[in-house]
Amino acid sequence: DYKDDDDKRPHLEVALLRDDFRQNPTDVVVAAGEPAILECQPPRGHPEPTIYWKKDKVRIDDKEERISIRGGKLMISNTRKSDAGMYTCVGTNMVGERDSDPAELTVFERPTFLRRPINQVVLEEEAVEFRCQVQGDPQPTVRWKKDDADLPRGRYDIKDDYTLRIKKTMSTDEGTYMCIAENRVGKMEASATLTVRAKLGSHHHHHH
């Protein structure tokens, strides 16, 4: 006679998995070498869903030492170009699986110099060139300054490859020329000095 055991019966628990994620991952933009974090909270469910991540539809293996998955967070410690792609968080329990909205990870590269300007010494009225070659993603913009100010107008040409050229140098062109490369993830500067020597024979003689 089990009449008294009514309260010992197992409760009927209905397994379920809702559709809507408590938190969908959002798009992330980082510079290569920086960490990236994507966050996700799975839909409510019973039993409580666990999650895993997919990149471009392939399940991510967190054995790779740069990647750690804890709770709803996917962390990439030191991003590379190859980490860029579409990431989806998958919530799963015995009922099934649900995919989050995808989030895009974009990995840009800071500007770096392929060629920096070098110090130059020229005679007055000679031509001089300072070169500056940069790379980065997105392609950096490049501008020149002289002694931390905008370049004096009309004294120089800047070519398509960002080379700065002065056709006939004057003593007032002496100074420090700085090439500044900038994109949305970084800014780099490289500088070089110009020394202008007077031509022999053009000295003014002071009579005492």
Task: Give the key terms.
208 residues, mainly beta, 7-stranded mixed sheet, 5-stranded mixed sheet
Descriptive overview:
This protein is an all-beta fold and 208 residues long. The protein is 0% helix and 48% strand. It contains no helices and 20 strands. The chain has strands spanning 16-17, 28-31, 36-39, 45-46, 50-55, 58-59, 67-70, 73-76, 85-93, 96-99, 103-115, 120-123, 128-130, 133-137, 141-146, 149-150, 157-158, 164-166, 175-183, 186-197. Strands 2, 5, 6, 9, 10, 11 and 14 form a 7-stranded mixed β-sheet that branches. A 5-stranded mixed β-sheet has the order 12-20-19-15-16, with no helix packed on it. Strand 5 (50-55) and strand 6 (58-59) form a beta hairpin. 19% of the residues are buried. The model has no long low-confidence stretch (mean pLDDT 91).
